[in-house]
Design goal:
With 463 residues, this protein is mostly helical. It contains 18 helices and two strands.
Length: 463
């Protein structure tokens, strides 16, 4: 439901372009606006879900999705479309909430399969919008058919948000919902990890600065120089405030040693950040560019190119659960190593494609890219709930934000170079992350400790 609303504009973009007389630049602005707020929202929602629980957060996000879709459906100008689309980017953070809830309901030996199925259906929501909304707009008919189609998704999301609130609980009966001791940043257990946390928080804010630059006077010219500079200052100020908050919450690492049973290694989070940057980031980028790549390289028709490109997102239903099951069966590190080997090889091979290649070989290799990268996303989130239970939402939020950062970086690379070079950049990035997985990633073993409300300690299996 959340991804259906998040991408309910995409299949109707040709109608929107005609209705509002949008230029190519304005279409690009709408696409960027849709993902801009998702990056910080996933960080924020990760903190909130750890504090308030999935039941309240998912209900709130779904109902908000319904409300925020209304001004988009009723918009009468490009400015109204853009602002409402920016706000709807918040809905993309809903994915983080379910990650925490799945971690509560499934044991370590099944978390990969459960997270994979959940993630696969989440991403399928965007494909569901693509298949259903154009037909729904035609069924309503008239020049306002698209508006009624958008409003239909709004009603569905709002109604399901109410249903969700009255139908679920945060944990199985008798289980404890562990919460962070402090709100505002992840709890770190060593000085080295604190430095890593501060360092790897920068790309999240850097991505927002990159978005501002793309919308600024040097590129799309939708933002003025004065407004762009104000946004840059604001982004810098927010990062500095966040860095201060991180240090304040974790100042104990400077004066005392955290008991070993409560310690965890933040490098695990960093490697999962980088892994999801490649897997989900490449997916976001390829979904945006594949149809045009097929048309420009092989001269295919718009319909044929669209059908071939649609294979890529639909594969989420199979590949993401398969990656999770693989992680459960053969281990977290080994599955990521194998999948990232496949990602690196297939993307580097795509980088060699020219017009002389048989289209069936190119599509076949693209399918392999999809299987490995979406399987990699499933394997990443199979490990997320096993790092530190009480902070699963925050870990999932940071990892998810890096996925959007990757999509933005890769699409920016594409805007400056050829598709072949774009594929090569993803391939080499995947190879670098593969080395990091092999050298630095630790297989989750044994148990982690969480403190019960009465002060006693509960051990949670992560093997």
């Amino acid at each position: 439901m959340s991804f259906m609303v998040w991408f309910n504009h995409a299949p109707l973009m040709s109608i929107l372009r005609e209705t509002f007389g949008l230029s190519d630049q304005e279409v690009k602005v709408l696409l960027i606006m849709n993902v801009a707020l998702t990056i910080p929202a996933r960080i924020l929602v990760g903190m909130l879900v750890d504090r308030f629980g999935p039941r309240l957060m998912f209900s709130g996000i779904l109902m908000s999705a319904g409300v925020l879709s209304v001004p988009f459906a009723l918009a009468e100008s490009f400015e109204q479309l853009a602002v409402s689309r920016l706000l709807l980017g918040f809905v993309g953070a809903g994915f983080v909430v379910g990650t925490r809830m799945i971690g509560e309901w499934f044991p370590a030996r099944q978390t990969g399969a459960a997270q994979g199925i959940y993630g696969g259906w989440g991403n399928f929501g965007s494909a569901g919008s693509a298949m259903a909304l154009p037909a729904l707009a035609l069924w309503f008919g008239g020049e306002d058919g698209w508006r009624y189609a958008i409003l239909t998704t709004a009603v569905m999301a709002f109604s399901y948000g109410i249903f969700y609130y009255f139908s679920v609980s945060n944990t199985p009966k008798g289980s404890t919902y562990f919460k962070p001791k402090k709100m505002g940043a992840m709890e770190i257990t060593s000085k080295r990890d604190l430095l890593l946390y501060l360092l790897f928080s920068i790309p999240v804010y850097g991505a927002l600065a990159l978005l501002t630059w793309k919308l600024g006077p040097a590129n799309m010219a939708w933002l003025s120089t004065e407004l762009s500079n104000s946004i840059y200052i604001g982004i810098t100020a927010i990062y500095l405030w966040q860095a201060w908050k991180i240090i304040q919450i974790n100042k104990a690492v400077f004066t005392e040693t955290i008991p070993e049973m409560y310690q965890y290694s933040f490098k695990q989070v960093v490697i999962l950040d980088l892994a999801y940057m490649v897997t989900f980031g490449s997916e976001l980028a390829l979904v945006s560019m594949l149809p045009l790549f097929y048309i420009d390289t092989f001269g295919l028709s718009l319909v044929t190119a669209g059908l071939l490109a649609a294979i890529y997102p639909v594969m989420n239903l199979i590949a993401r659960p398969a990656g999770g099951v693989m992680s459960d069966r053969i281990g977290r590190k080994l599955s990521l190593t194998m999948l990232f080997s496949g990602i690196a090889v297939t993307f580097l091979l795509l980088g060699q494609v020219s017009a002389g290649w048989a289209i069936v070989l190119v599509v076949g290799n693209t399918i392999l890219c999809g299987l490995f990268s979406k399987g990699g996303s499933g394997a990443v989130y199979a490990m997320v709930p096993l790092i530190q239970r009480r902070m699963t939402g925050q870990v999932a939020g940071m990892v998810g934000a890096y996925g959007n950062v990757g999509g933005l970086i890769f699409l920016t690379v594409l805007s400056f170079t050829t598709p072949q070079a774009f594929f090569m950049v993803i391939g080499f990035t995947a190879f670098a992350v593969l080395l990091a997985i092999i050298i630095f990633l630790d297989e989750p073993k044994g148990q982690t400790a969480e403190v019960m409300p009465d002060g006693s300690v509960q051990m949670i299996d992560v093997t």
